[in-house]
Amino acid sequence: MIELIEPDTDLYNAFRACRADWGPGEHEDGFGIDERDDVDSPEGFATWVRRMRSQLHPRTQPCPDRPHWTPHWIVEDGEILGAIALRHQADDLFGRIGYGIRPSARRRGVATWALTQTLAEAREVLGLDRVLMPCAADNIPSARTIERCGGILEGIVATELGPQRRYWIDLS
Hints:
Layout: E1 2-5, H1 12-22, H2 42-54, E2 69-76, E3 79-87, E4 97-101, H3 110-124, E5 130-136, H4 140-148, E6 152-159, E7 162-170
Antiparallel strand pairs: 1-2, 2-3, 3-4, 5-7, 6-7
């Protein structure tokens, strides 16, 4: 059974397998990894997970002194299939939700399932009535996922990240 969980240090080996599936130089969207993070050593991984967990936004009340996002790992039978993050503040470049699915778990509906769950959280927890979901203009699988979840294309725009499709999803 697929589930969304908070980042967990017990899944170090599962994370390494997930990361290896992407291969060197690939970008794992949804995980929140940046250049300061050492996710390859057990100690660095534990530090990164603690930082991720410290940034979790309480679901019931505002938290003005911490970043406003909720990261989740997409897990099935102890295997990390990917990650998805809900941003609690509007972001015109990245939108409200970012996700990535490891190559071996694609084309199984994992992204659609995770996005559906996260859209429900955006509506129920944050009270949003619509969300912005951009993706790279050439990322047709992501565009299809967004469209399956109700995304309506606003247009394709030039951004600092390259051309992006901008979708809006109505949550009402």
